[in-house]
Design a protein that fits this description.
With about 300 residues, the protein is an alpha/beta fold. It is built from 5 helices and 8 strands; from the N terminus they run αααβββββββαβα. About 0% of the residues have low confidence.
């Protein structure tokens, strides 16, 4: 074979290789285009569903489990709406009226709730539900308090929920501020306790709070002493009870426990004399519980020893 023919043969082989590469590129481009068309079609279908769900919600206020991602309900009246299990991620709900709405298991990730009103809304775990949402000082929570009010931190005591808007805890900082709650209701809820003095670093709002103190006086008190008295020959007994009080200090921004203790903070003792009413004297006994002021002083001392710089 002559030299020119050999070269021609090589060029022909390279041409076929080139055609193959071009074919692969063309097929790849077609596949990418088809994939893009499919993806665009899926997005269009999803958006169509969201638009339909939006109309349903606005017409009937019933849209449990609906896909409402990225929808805009700013300033809309959705009071009493059923949005349980709905996906409202990245939705705009600024100034939206959600009073009395069912928000159980609703997804608010990335949603904006600035100025929204959630008064009396049903929310199973408030802190977790709104953790990834954007709220402001005008957002009203289910209990009627504003977002930055200290009441929102009650869930930290109830189940250790984190409050993302709180000041991170720094054990070496001299700016640790505390919000205290007391467990008093039979249902296990906690209420704000303002017995913390300013010198124990009481926080003014939720955002400035680093630590949450949970005071649990719900344990059944025990009789620790029977004080006997004589009233003109009549025997009278004062049953002195002592409470076990559990104190738990948690980090507000994470819900993590820093320290916990259970102590008999009641230090009241039997007095030399007793003041007795006629009805109590007729019964022959009365019960005496701790001095709440004394208990609070003991709690304050315990707290100050842990938050003072």
């Amino acid at each position: 074979m002559s030299e020119p023919e050999k070269v021609k043969g090589k060029i022909g082989c390279l041409a076929w290789i080139g055609y193959g590469i071009i074919a692969i590129l063309v097929l790849g481009a077609l596949e990418t285009g088809i994939s893009y068309l499919l993806e665009s079609g899926e997005r269009a279908e999803a958006q169509k569903e969201i638009d339909t769900n939006t109309e349903t919600l606005l017409d009937s206020k019933q849209c449990a489990g609906c896909d409402l991602r990225d929808a805009d309900f700013s300033g809309v009246d959705l009071s009493g709406a059923d949005l349980s299990g709905a996906d409202l991620s990245n939705a705009k709900l600024d100034g939206t009226n959600l009073t009395g709405a069912n928000l159980t298991d609703t997804n608010f990730a990335g949603a904006s709730l600035a100025g929204a009103n959630l008064t009396d809304a049903s929310v199973a775990n408030l802190a977790t539900t709104i953790a990834a949402a954007t709220l402001d000082e005008q957002t009203t929570l289910p209990n009627g308090s504003t977002y930055m009010a200290r009441d929102v931190l009650a869930s930290v005591c109830v189940d250790g929920s984190a409050f993302a808007g709180a000041t991170p805890y720094d054990p070496f900082s001299d700016a640790m501020l505390v919000t205290a709650f007391e467990k008093t209701a039979p249902d296990g809820s906690f209420e704000i306790q303002d017995a913390i003095p300013d010198d124990a670093r009481k926080a003014a709002d939720a955002s400035s709070t680093s630590l949450v103190l949970c005071v649990d006086r719900s344990q059944e008190p025990e009789v620790v002493e029977n004080c006997e008295y004589d009233f003109d020959g009549r025997n009278f007994v004062v049953n002195r009870y002592q409470r076990q009080i559990t104190l738990t200090l948690l980090e507000a921004s994470t819900g993590q426990a820093i320290e916990s203790t259970t102590e008999p903070f009641d230090t009241t003792e039997c007095s030399m004399v007793a003041s007795v009413s006629e009805s109590e004297l007729a019964r022959g006994e009365r019960d005496m519980f701790g001095d709440e002021e004394v208990e609070n002083q003991a709690i304050q001392e315990w707290l100050k020893s842990r938050v003072q710089p």
